[in-house]
C-alpha cells in the first residue's frame, strides 16, 4: 500500500475533472480526496494498492473536450490508512454532484456534435449515390416484374378459359344425357 499526493495543472477546474477523478478512484478502490486549489490547480491525495495507485495516476492524465491536464506533479509517501473512501472536497458556493453529471453529459454532447456529425455529410452523399443507383436499377426491375406479372395473368386466364371450356362441354354432355332419359 502506498500514498501519493498529486498536483494537477491545466484546464482542470470548473470542467468536471474532480467528478471524473472520483469515478476513477472508486473503480480502482483508491481512498483519499480531490480538491481545487486557489492557484487553479487540483490536489489529489490517493492511497491504495501500489499497482492500482499507478493505474490511477495514469488515468488522471485526462485530455478531452473540457479537461486538459498539462502537468502532473507527484510525491509518494507511506500509506496511512486515514481515508475510508474517495471523495471530492467542495468549497462554499461550489456545484454539487448533479452539476458535475451535467458537465459530463455536456462533454459527451460536445464530442458528438464535433466528431459524431463530422462525417455525416459524406455519409449522406454516399447514401444518395446508392439511392440513385438503386433508382436506376429499380425502374428496370419494376418493368421486368410488370412483364412477368402480366404474363402470369395471361397464362392463368388461358388456363382458366381452357378449364372452363372443358367444364362447359361436360355440362352440355350431361344435359344432353338427362334430356335423352327424360324424353323416353
In terms of quaternary structure, what is this?
A: single chain
Computed CA radius of gyration, to the nearest angstrom: 40 Å
Q: Structural class of the helices, strands and pairings?
A: alpha+beta
Strand order of the largest sheet: 4-1-3-2-5
H/E element sequence: EHEEHEEHH
What would CATH call the class of the largest domain? Alpha Beta
Proportion of helical residues: 55-70%
Give an overview in words.
With about 180 residues, this protein is an alpha+beta fold. The protein contains 4 helices and 5 strands. A 5-stranded mixed β-sheet has the order 4-1-3-2-5. The longest helix is centred in the C-terminal third of the chain and has 64 residues. The chain is rod-shaped, with a radius of gyration of 40 Å.
Provide a brief overview of the structure.
With 184 residues, the protein is of the alpha+beta class.
List its traits.
184 residues, Alpha-Beta Plaits, 5 strands, 20% strand, alpha+beta
List the helices and strands and how they pair.
Layout: E1 2-11, H1 17-27, E2 31-36, E3 42-48, H2 50-59, E4 68-78, E5 86-88, H3 97-116, H4 120-183
Parallel strand pairs: 2-5
Antiparallel strand pairs: 1-3, 1-4, 2-3
